[in-house]
Fold these 2 entries.
Entry 1:
Amino acid sequence: MRHSRADTDASHLKLSRRAALMGGVQLLFMGGLAARMWYLQVDQADQFRLLAEENRINIRLIPPVRGEIFDRNGMQLAKNVPSYRIIMVREDAGDFNAVLDRVAKLIDLSPEETERAREELGRRGDRSLPITIAEDVSWDAVSAISVNAPALPGVSPEVGTTRVYPRGSDFAHVVGRVGSVSPKDLEALESPDAVLRIPRFQIGKINVEAREEPLLRGVAGNRQVEVNATGRVMRELERREGQSGADLQLTIDAKLQNYVQARLQGESAAVVILDCEKGDILANSSAPSYDPNLFIGGILSRDYDPLLNDKYRPLVNKTVQGAYPPGSCFKMVTAMAAIEEGIISPDDTVYCPGHLEVGGRRFHCWKRAGHGWLDLEGSLKSSCDVYYYDLALKVGIEKISAMANRFGLGIKHDLALSSVNSGLTPTKEWKLRQRGADWVIGDTVNASIGQGFMLATPMQLAVMTARLATGREVTPRLIKSVNGVEQPVLGNESLGMRESNLRKMRKSMYSVVNDRRGTGYRSRIIAEGMRMAGKTGTSQVRSAVVDNKSVPWEQRDHALFVSFAPYDNPRFACAVLVEHGGGGSTAAAPIARDVMLQALYNGEPPLDAYPSADRGRIKTQQRALRDVQPEARINKSKDQA
Amino acid sequence: MSYLEYTVKSTPTGLRKILFLNWPLILLLTAVAGTGFLMLYSVAGGSYTPWAGPQMKRFALGLCLMLSIGLVPIWMWRNLAGVAYAVSVILLISVEFFGAVGMGAQRWIELGPLRLQPSEMTKITLVMFLAAYYDWLPAKKTSRPLWVLLPVLIIIAPTLLVIKQPDLGTAILLLAAGGGLMFLAGVHWAYFAAVLAAGVGLVAAVFQSRGTDWQMIKDYQFLRIDTFLDPSTDPLGTGYHIAQSKIALGSGGWMGRGFMQGTQSRLNFLPEKQTDFIFTTLAEEFGFVGGISLLTLYGLIVTFCIASAVMNKDRFSSLLTLGIGLNFFLFFAVNMSMVMGLAPVVGVPLPMVSYGGSAMLVLLLAFGLVQSAHVHRPR
C-alpha cells in the first residue's frame, strides 16, 4: 500500500520519538543492571567472597579409630575390621528412590534394609551429606556398584571399619555392644561431638562400650577439602589427624568367662568370680546371653523379638542389674553384726524349736522339726533360720544394714557396666520414706535371713564373700589398664573387724561345704590346698512353702551360693545365682565348685579334685563342655604337642 | 516513503554493498562473541572442547549467513514476512505433535542435520510480520481498535503455542517484543496504560485472594512466587541457582579473580554454567569491570540498532531494526536480571555468549536482516 510523503514523514517522526523513548527506557534498565552489579560485586563483595570460600571448602571429619578391648591375658574381645558400605548423596542422586531400587536389585539388598535406607533417605536434613544405604557389604557388591557407577548417580562404595566381637555371646554382658547413633542419643547430650553426626557412626550402647565411650571413641580428625557442587573431592587442602580411642584391658579372664558361660548353658543364671587380692572381676557371666554382633548394623525384629520375649531375659545382665533376696547367704552379715557388737559370742547357743513367735506371728525355720541347740558354726552349717531370727531381734535392723553396707551390699559399685543396681539394705527410715509405713519387727526377722526387703546383686554377694575371706575392703575392678596404663586397685584397707570373728565366720563357711552335715557338702572340693568354703542360699519368691517341683518355673525359689577358695589362702570369691533354680545346695553349689576349680587350676581341673562319687558325672560333663570352649581345645592340642 | 519510491541509483549494488554494511555493528557482535569464546574456554577448564570450539565454528557460519542475508534487498525480506510468520506458526503447531522434547521443555524438529527450534525462529518472524503489517497499515488507522486487535492476535497466537510447550521464558520475550513493536509503531499510549493497569489489578487481585475462599491460584504457585521474592527461604531448591549465582558474582569483586581463576563455576556450584549462567563466570573472573564492559558492548549494539533505525526512512526497515534490537535487549536484560537475582529463573540465554548454536544462528540471521535494512535504506 502506498502512503503519501507527508504521512510517511509524520509517522517516521513519531516512530523516531518512540524509538528514542524506548532507547531511554532500555538505557535506564541497563543502568539498573549496572547498579545491581556494583552492589553485588563491589558493595557486598566481601560477604560474597566469604560465602564462596565456604562453598568451595568443605570440612570432612575423619572418624577416629575406636579403641579395642582385651581380656587380662591380651585376648581380643572387641576389634575393628574393615567393612565396605554403600553410601548415597541425595543431592547428586536426583530421584533417590529410583536409584535405591536399582542398587537394591544390583546387590541383593533385603527388603528390610531397603526400607530402612529409604526411610533414612526420606528424612529431612542436609542433602549433601552421605547416607549409608547398605552396610557390611561384600567385595562383589562393591565391584558391582563401581562397574555400574554411571547408572547410579550419587552412589559410591566406601571403606570404613565396623566393630566385631570375636567371642560372640560370651561378653555381651561385659563388653556390651556398639550401635549407630540414634536421634535419642544425640538429644541426651548437651553438646554432641560433631563426629556423632556422621551417619551410622558407631557408639557404645551398653556396658563397657557405653560406659567407657569417652576413652574408646578417641578424637576425630578433620581434613579440609575443596569440593565441587556434586560434593566430589577435588583436592585436599589441609589434614589434621585425630586421635585413636584408647585400648582397654579388662580384668576378665576370657578363658574362664568362656567356661562359665558354657557351664551356665540352659540356665537362667549369673556367676561372678572375683580375685580376692585386687578385686579383679575374673568372670562376669549372665546366662542366657546373646550375640552382640547381631546388633551392630541394627538388629532385625526377627532376631530381636525372641530375645525380648524369652522368659530367661537374655538381654538383662543379671550379675549387676538383677537384685535378688540373698536368702541364707546373708546370714554371715547378720552373724557378723551380732558378734562384732559383742551381743553374742560365736560359742553361745540358741535353741531352735522349728519356729519363733514374734509379735504374735510365728516365723518358721526351714526345718519344721527344729535344729535343737546350735552355736554359730552349727547354725550356719545347717542354715538354721531361728538362730538368726534370735540374733536379729537382739541386734536390730539398723546395725544389720550398716554391717551389710560394710560388706558391700546396698552400695552401688562403680563399674563400667550398664544399669548397675545398688540392691537394698532396708532401714526404718527407708521404709517410712519409701513405703510410708512403720518398720515392724517382722521385717527385721525377714531381713535377718536375707528375705523381705533385703536385695542384693550377685556382684555384691561376690564382693561380700571376698571381704569376708580377706577382711579387707575388696572393691570390684573391671578395667585393668587403659592404653597399657594399669588402673588403680582400690580397697586395700582393712574392714576393721576383729580377725578372730572373721576367722570364725570363715571356719563356719568351711563347715557348710566340708562338714558331712553341711548344706553344701555334696559340692565340696577334696584336693588339698584347694578346699572351698561357702554358703548356700535359697531365696523365696512366694510366701507359701510348697515343693519347688510342683510350681511353675517363675514361682520356684532362687538358688544361691557364695564361696571362696582356697580356704586357708583365699584367692577367689564367687557368687552363683540360678534364677528359680530351686535349692542353693542342689542348683547353685555344683556350678560354684566347677567354676571355682576352673579358676583355681586355670583351666580344666583334674578329676581327683572332685569327690570320687562325682567323678563319672563330671567327666561326661567336662567332655561335653570342651566342645563349646575354643580355648579348652587349644590347650588340649598344645598338651599333646 | 515506500521501497518503490527509492532512488534506486543511489543504493549500492553488487559486492559494493559490502562497503555499506553496518560494520561497527559487526565488530560489536564479534567482540561479544569473542567474549563468549573466552568464557566457554574457561568454564571447560581451559579447553576448546566441548564448548568453545563448536561455538566458534557456529559463529563463523552465522557470520557468513548474516552477510549473505544482508546483501539481499530488504524488500525481498518484506515480501517474505507473511510467509515466514505463517511457516513458524505452522512449525509451532507441528512440534506439538512431532517435536522432540529435551532439556525440560524446549522442543525442536530434526530436519536432517539441522535442529530446528520453531520458538527461536518465531521471535524473528513475529517482528518481521508486525513490521510489515505496520508498514502496510496507514499511520492514521494505527490506533483504531480493530487495527489494534489484529496485531494483538498476531502476537497472541504463537505466544500461546509457546506457553503450551511449555517455555514461559520465550513466551514472555515474544509478548514483550510484540508489545514493544506496537508501541514503536505508534499505537496510542492509552492502550498500553489500560493493559498495564489491568495487569497490575490482576496481580493485586491474585495476591488479595490468598487465603480466602476465592483464591485464584494454587498454594504451590504462591510458594513459587514466595521463593522468587525471597530465595533464602529455599536455598537448596529453587533458590539454589540464584543464591549460588549471586555468590559467584559477588566473589568477583572489582577486577575479578582473573581469567580461568573462577572457583565457583569451575567447581560446578553453578548450574548451566555454559549456557544460561555463563555471565556469572565472566563476572567472577573479570569482576565488575568485566561485567560492565559486556553490558556496554550490549548497550552499544542496541544503540547502533536504534541509530540505524532512526536514520532509515523506510518504515518496515526501521520497525524491523528496532524490533530486533528490542529482542536482543530483552535477551540480555532478562538473562542478567535472572543471574543477578532480579528476575525469576527462566531459561533465557545470554545472547551471543551462552553456548548454543540455534540461538546464536537465529540472532545472527536477525542481524542479517538489520544489515539488509541498513544497506538498502533509501538515500
Note: Chain B has one domain: 3-375.
Entry 2:
Amino acid sequence: MIRQPRTPRIALKLHWFFAALLLAASPALAQDWFRTGTGLGVERPRVAVADLVPRAPEATAHGKLFTEVVRGDLDFSGILELVSPSFHPLQSPGMPLQLNYKAWSDAPASAQMVAFGNLQESSSEAAIEAWLYDVRNPSSPPVVAKVYRGAPTDAQIRKFAHQFADEIIGKLSGGLPGVASTQIAFISNRTGSKELWVMDYDGANQHALTALRTISLMPRWSPDTSRIAFACYIQAFGILSPQICMFSLELGRPVTFPRFHGSNSAPAWSPDGSQLMFSSSMSGYPEIYSIDANGSHFKRLTFSAGDSASTSPAWNPKTGQSAAFISDRGGFPQLYLMNSDGTNIRKMDLPDMGYVIDPAWSPNGQLLAFSWRRPNGNFDIYVMDVTSHQIAEITRDAGRNERPSWAPDGRHIVFESTRGGSRQIWVMLADGSHAHALTQSGANESPNWSPR
Amino acid sequence: MTRASRLYRSSLLVAFAALALTAGCGKKQAAPPPPPPPPPPPPAKPTVTLQAAPTTIEKGGSVTLSWSSTNATALVIQPAIGNVAPEGSTKVSPDATTTYTITATGPGGSIDATASVNVTQPPPPPPPPPQPTLEELFARDVHDAYFDFNKADIREDAKAALSKDADFIKAHAGIKVVIEGHCDERGSTEYNMALGDRRAAAVKKYLSSLGVPADSLTTVSYGKEKPSCTESTEDCWQKNRRGHPVLAK
C-alpha cells in the first residue's frame, strides 16, 4: 500500500493546522483547551512583573529569586506577553498605594497588568504580599491578592512564586490552572544506573526517587499524583526481567506490584486511577493487558495474529473509553486506537510509510502527540487531531525528538531530544515554540508530566 | 716380560749355580734339601676407571658410563647396574643426581672408582589446563543470532549460529538458557522493548524447532537498554540487533 507522494497536500494540511493551533493559543478563541480570559480583548495581555520589594536588606536575595521565578513562569505560560524589565518604570511598588497606574500602562511598558509585592524575612519565616492589578482600570479591585508565609528557604520561595504565577495564569486563562506547580518524572543515568527522578516543571529541584541499581524505565504518574508506575528490571521467576513497578510518593518508596512471566513494560493509567494497561510477553509475544491498580484482575486486551508486538498503550484521559497504542502487526510500528476493553481496533492512517511510536493524549482527549520517523527523516514530534486526522509537525531539523508528554494545561509538551548533542529533557509550547532544555547532566529520558 | 717374572728367573739361576757348586765337592754326602721355591710374586692389584659423559643432564636425559679395568675378575657398578664386563659402556638415565661406583675385584684385591652424574630438574611443566567450566564452554560455543533493522525474522547466518547453539544445549542436558532480545538505539524505548521480545521469542521458536526442549528456554527483552556496542554507526547497530543466549544462573 505504497501511496503516491502527497507532500504538497501534507504541507497544505500542516500549514492549515499550524494556523489552527496558533489561533487556538490566543485567548480570543473559545477552544476548550485554551479558554479565553474575560474582558481582555483579542491580544494576549501584556503583563509586567515588578521587582518584589524587600522590606529589609536581608530579604533581597529571596526577593530576586521570587521575581525571577514568577517572570519565568509567566513568560513560558503561552497565554500572555511578558513586559521586558528594561521597559519598567524606575520605581517598583511594594504596596497597592505605591502603584503608579499611568507609569506602567504608558509606553514603553504598555502593561495591562502589573504584578508586584513585598517580602519580609526573619530567620524563621518569609512573608510575601503579592498582587496583580489591572492598570488600565484603576477603579477595579485587584485581580489577584495573596499572602504567603513559610520557611525562608529557596525551595519555599520558589513554591510561593509558582503558586502566585499559577494564580495569575488561572485568572488570565479563564480558569484553566497554570502548571507552574507541576512536576516532571523522568529517567536519568547520572548516578550510574537508570533511576526514576522528578523535577519541578521548570527543571529546578531535580532529585532521584529510586536507587534500585538496575534499569528503570517509562515512568507514568497516577492521576492523583500519589504514585508513579514504571518498568524496572527485577528478579522474577528466577531471572532478571522487566516488571511493572510502583513508587509511592506518599511512602517515599517502591511498593509491591504483581510480577508476570516475560517482559512487562509501558504502564498507562486509566483516567480514574483504578486500572492500568501495560504491555507484556507473558503469553509469548508482547500484547496489551489491563490490571487493577491494586494488582488484581489482570486481563488480556489485544490478540494480534502472528508474531507481532503491541505496546505503548495510552488511555484517553478525558473519556476513559478508548486507548491509543503502537503495534507492528502491519510490519512496522504504527498508531492504532481501540476501545479500552480491547474491542474495535482500528489503525490511524498516516500519509506515508512512517514509523510511529510514543503516543500521548492531550488532556482534553482530542489530540494525540507522537514521535514519527518519516521514511527519509529523523524522529520528530507531531500532533494529530484524532477526529479530523489533521497533523502538525511540532519539531523539525533538531536531533531526534521523542516521547512527548502533555502538561495538564494542554498548552505545554515535555519531550526528549538529542538536539543538544546528548539525550536530554526539553519542554516547549504545544505549537513547538519556546523549546528549552530542562536537564544537562548525564543522559535523561522518558519525561512524564504530572497530571496536576 | 714384567719385572716380576725377570726377578723370578734370575732367582732361579742363582739357585741352580749354588746347587752345582755344592755337588762338585769330593765326598758323597746327603744332598741338602732343596731350597724352598721362592715365594710366588704377589698377584697384581686390579685397576679400574669409570667415566660419565656428559656429567650433567636434565632429568629424563641419558648418560654414557664407560669403564675399563685390569687385573679384575669381577666388576660391579652400583647402583642399579650390577655386574659388567671388564671393559664397556652403558647408558643410564638416573632420575636424580647419582654417584656411580664401579668396584673391580681381582686376585690382587679390589678397588673402586666413581663418576657422578648431576641431574638437574627440568622447569615444571605448565600446569595442565583446567577443564573449561560450563560457563566458559557456553561462552565459547554458543553464539548470537543477528537481525535486520526492525525485524525479528531468523536470517540464514542466524540459522547457522542457532543450529550450533541447539547442539550445545542438547549436549548439556538440564541446562537452562535465557534468550535475551536486544535492539539498536533507534526507535523508542517501549517499542524496542517489544521488538526485543519478538526477537527473543523468534530465537526460542527456532531452537525449539531444532529439538531443544522448550522448558530449558526462557526469554527476556532488554530493548535498547544493554547495547554491546555504543556508537551510532550501522556496524554498531548490527551488533546490537541480536538474540543473545545466556546461561541461567
Note: The CA atoms of residues 105 and 167 of chain B lie 74 Å apart.
